[in-house]
Amino acid sequence: MQDFIFALMLFAPPTGGSTPNPFIQLVPLVLIFVVFYFFMIRPQQKKQKDRESLLDTIKRGDKVVTIGGIHGTVAGIETEKKTVLVQVADNVKIKFERSAIANIEKQETGDKLATKE
Questions:
Q1: pLDDT in tens, 71-92
Q2: If one looks up domain 58-106 in CATH, what number appears?
């Protein structure tokens, strides 16, 4: 317990005329950066990487939802993979940027798709 109290006293401002240790003053800044990295920067990078891998797996026939909320089926992908042609109704196709795709809807398999009452 005494070690903990002594460690806290190291962060206290100096009481005498002595100059504070520059290393001790730098420790809180380093700790703040580490916290920001592990709680904000790193998860955001992981999320961006997952989104890129999702957009790379888009293929013709996938059911997608755009960031605008439009549901449709991928009718084609241009060669540069920058735009996607989405069929939203019979004979209605809209061209979207690939980055406008919010997610790919998961399709259920089996008899659940065949039975509509």
A1: 999 999 887 778 999 999 999 9
A2: 2.30.30.140
